[in-house]
Each structure stands twice: as C-alpha cells, then as structure tokens.
C-alpha cells in the first residue's frame, strides 16, 4: 500500500501528516513507529492523521513517535492547520459545526461574579472534569481567537478541528516582515482554559499541569544549555509520573542562556538545508499529493494584519517575559526541538510562579523532584499555602498576558488572560482563559511511504 504524506515542522518539532479523510488508510502502532523512525523511516516526532468530522472542519488524531495515540500536540495542531489548508480544507459554516466550536456554553462577563451552568447537551465535545465545572461563552462570532493581537485576515483561513481534548480553532496570519527565507505565515491555535486549582505546585520551581497533555515544569537557576535533558527528563517522566508519564519542561530566563541564539541559528540552518536537499523529492512526488490550494507563499497575499510575532529577527532582549525552554517529550522519549503544549504550560506556570514569589509563599513541603523524585509523590499542592497567591493573580485580571518562548528549534508565543469565575458551589476560581499558541508551521516536503 502506498501512503502519500507531507512532512511539516513547527519550530523544529516535526511531523508526518497524512490525509485520511476517506478513511482508507489503516496503520497499526508498529507501522506508525517505523514511519517516524529517524533512521529507517521518514523521521518525525509524531504523526498527524487528518480525518473527516461531522462537528468540525476536520478531526486530528495525533500519534507520538512511538506509534501510540498521544494527547494534544500544540505544534502538531498548528502544522495540521497548515496541512489542512494546503489540501483544500476550508471552514464549513454548518449549524451543527457552529454548535461544536465553543468548548463551553453558558454565561460570561468580566466581573467574576456570575454563577454558571454547564450545558454539555448543547456542546457535543464538552467533557466535564471532576469537581465543579467552570463554564463560559466563547463568542461565536470570533471563535475565541481574536484578541489584541488582531484578527485573522479571513474567515476562510480559520478552521475548527477536533483533537484529543475537544474542539479547537486554528488559523493563519501574515507576519509583516520580509526579506527572510523563513515562513511569512504565523499559525495559531487556541487551547482549553486551565483552572488554577488544577495546577499542582510542588515547590517554588516545580509545577505540574494538564493542558490537553501532561506537563511538568521545572524552573532552573543554572545554565539550561548544560543540563542533561534526556536523563533528567526520563528520570522524572518514569519515577515521578510512572508508566502514563509526563512531558518534562526545563525553563530558564532567556538571558540566562548565553548560547541559545547560536544554537538556534545552527538548527534553523540545518532545517533549511534539509528542505533544500529534499527539493528533488518534492518534484518526484508532486502528482500523488492532492491539489495544493494554500501554501506559505500565499501569505504574501493575505494583506496587512497586526503583527503577532515581532521579536525574532529584530533580536530579542532578555526581558522578563522571554523564556528559554527545553523539553523531554513523552512518546518520543527524547528531547525535541520544541513543544507547543509545553510552552503553554511554561507560560502559565511562569505567571503563577511570579505571583507566588511576590507573595513570598513559604513552601513548607519543599521538595525538588529533580533530586528526590519519589518523595515528591507525597507532596500534593497545598491550597491554603497558596490562597493569597490566587488573590495576587487578580491584579492583572483580564489583561492580555504574553510569553515569548525560545526553544532549541525556534520561537513560539503564548498569550492568555487571567479570569475569575464563581464556582457552582462555593468560592471563586481563577481560570486562565483565551489561551493561544502561535509560531511557524512549515511544509518541508511531500513523499509516498510504502508499507
Ligand atoms: N508528547 C506528547 C504530546 C505532544 C506535545 C507536543 N510536541 C506539542 O507540541 O504540544 C504526549 O505527551 O502525548
């Protein structure tokens, strides 16, 4: 059987993308693992399978490089949007689909003094989590992606997709700089809201949250370029989180990482060289790929939109909102060049950590999982310890927060807001809302894989 595929990468997190809307391709874990193998296969951190969907423009099934179905992949989602646009998928304005777009439907204001009802009947993808549910309307007209960054240029270039954790919206915007061989497009996806009380805080430097994928966030004070990400990451992934595992993100302030710029340039050059070397392959296989109706070059015709991503080529200063992150990825069982859901987790953890620092939170149950992994299983998040931190978080209520994250393979940007909702039963809850992840998602080459 011959399987046409496209290779994509988002900040160096690379994927094999397959169009399976006709449901003719059946792969098992072993076959997917072989396709992702860097020595005997195409080579990728994961596989994106695009299927058809009744409730969204497409369904994304994400598989890790080990061949097994993974959870939400942020960069994979951005690349899937790029691939979907390229194979001609466009936003369908069906009423059933519009019902599925908001993750929650109910009441919402900025005031933080509402009471809420869930409306899971109306929203087919609503999956209540344990405990009181926070519900909120996402404006159907905007689908939640528009914020002070500006609007997507065209409704046509915005797609809904069903992923492991429910429905998302993704789209493409133009970058307003030219003269570089790098993509002029920025691909953006929205993410599910995250409740503060679902973030596990081990100590001042270690947190855990699930934002569609499970993430441990470890803030480092030492030089991040020197840390053994694979061995430390693997230790935490298995010893602290067991077989189910976790993605492990090591974080430093960007300024602490003296070599990151150099490293990043080398990697970008490698990606570019690879793509150029693969030029032949593009020609050989172009007939097997469905009609290409959107490519990165089309970005030049999107017209002027507000700049999303203005730091990269101007040289970013080591300001407080700029972090450097290296991630050990579960399912790849290695360090990857970038991790999208990891960046989102880091951005929110950074916000919480600052609030805790300003509040002089005293971590009586202090543990450092990087040294004492087993012991940390006993240290659950002590809510009372952090209750003032939650109040502290309110200071920037509803302001757009932004974190720029440099990873070894490139830069990503995360935006979010901090909101307050009255819980159905008792007191108020802090919720991180309007979360977006943006950055490059580039087509690398097309090919045909034979099994
Ligand atoms: N490895 C994952 C999820 C994929 C993360 C990723 N590369 C991203 O960009 O978010 C898993 O734990 O299943």
From TrEMBL:
<keyword id="KW-0413">Isomerase</keyword>
<protein>
    <recommendedName>
        <fullName>Diaminopimelate epimerase</fullName>
    </recommendedName>
</protein>
<feature type="region of interest" description="Disordered">
    <location>
        <begin position="106"/>
        <end position="133"/>
    </location>
</feature>
<feature type="compositionally biased region" description="Polar residues">
    <location>
        <begin position="106"/>
        <end position="130"/>
    </location>
</feature>
<dbReference type="GO" id="GO:0005829">
    <property type="term" value="C:cytosol"/>
</dbReference>
<dbReference type="Pfam" id="PF01678">
    <property type="entry name" value="DAP_epimerase"/>
</dbReference>
<comment type="similarity">
    <text>Belongs to the diaminopimelate epimerase family.</text>
</comment>
<dbReference type="GO" id="GO:0009089">
    <property type="term" value="P:lysine biosynthetic process via diaminopimelate"/>
</dbReference>
<dbReference type="InterPro" id="IPR001653">
    <property type="entry name" value="DAP_epimerase_DapF"/>
</dbReference>
<dbReference type="GO" id="GO:0008837">
    <property type="term" value="F:diaminopimelate epimerase activity"/>
</dbReference>
């Amino acid at each position: 059987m011959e399987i046409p595929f496209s290779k994509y990468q988002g900040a160096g997190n690379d994927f094999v993308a397959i169009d399976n809307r006709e449901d003719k391709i059946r792969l098992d874990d072993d076959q997917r693992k072989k396709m992702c193998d860097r020595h005997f296969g195409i080579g990728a951190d994961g596989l994106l399978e695009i299927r058809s969907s009744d409730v969204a423009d497409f369904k994304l099934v994400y598989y890790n490089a080990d061949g097994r179905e993974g959870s939400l992949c942020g960069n994979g989602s951005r690349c899937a949007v790029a691939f979907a646009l390229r194979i001609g998928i466009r936003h369908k304005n069906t009423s059933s689909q519009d019902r599925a777009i908001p993750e929650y439907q109910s009441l919402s204001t900025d005031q933080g003094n509402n009471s809420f009802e869930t409306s899971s009947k109306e929203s087919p993808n609503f999956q209540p989590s344990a405990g009181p549910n926070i519900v909120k309307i996402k404006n159907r007209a905007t689908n939640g992606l528009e914020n002070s960054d500006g609007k997507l240029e065209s409704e046509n270039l915005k797609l809904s997709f069903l992923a492991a954790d429910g429905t998302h919206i993704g789209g493409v915007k133009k970058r307003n700089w030219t003269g570089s061989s790098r993509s002029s497009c920025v691909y953006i996806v929205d993410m599910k809201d995250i409740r503060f009380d679902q973030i596990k805080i081990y100590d001042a430097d270690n947190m855990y949250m699930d934002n569609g994928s499970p993430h441990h966030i470890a803030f480092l004070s030492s030089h991040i370029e020197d840390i053994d990400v694979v061995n430390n990451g693997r230790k935490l992934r298995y010893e602290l989180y067991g077989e189910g595992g976790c993605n492990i993100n090591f974080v430093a302030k960007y300024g602490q990482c003296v070599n990151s710029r150099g490293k990043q340039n080398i990697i970008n050059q490698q990606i570019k060289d690879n793509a150029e070397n693969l030029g032949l392959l593009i020609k050989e296989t172009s007939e097997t790929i469905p009609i290409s109706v959107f490519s990165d070059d089309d970005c030049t015709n999107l017209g002027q939109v507000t700049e999303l991503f203005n730091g990269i080529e101007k040289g970013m200063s080591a300001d407080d909102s700029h972090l450097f992150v290296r991630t050990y990825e579960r399912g790849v069982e290695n360090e990857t060049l970038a991790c999208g859901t990891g960046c989102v987790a880091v951005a929110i953890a950074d916000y919480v950590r600052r609030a805790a620092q300003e509040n002089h939170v005293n971590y009586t149950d202090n543990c450092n999982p990087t040294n004492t992994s087993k012991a940390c299983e006993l240290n659950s998040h002590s809510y009372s310890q952090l209750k003032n931190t939650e109040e502290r978080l309110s200071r920037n209520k509803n302001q757009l927060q932004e974190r720029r994250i440099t990873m070894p393979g490139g830069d990503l940007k995360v935006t979010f807001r901090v909101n307050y909702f009255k819980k159905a039963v008792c007191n108020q809850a802090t919720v991180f809302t309007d979360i977006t992840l943006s950055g490059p998602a580039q087509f690398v080459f097309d090919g045909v894989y034979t099994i």
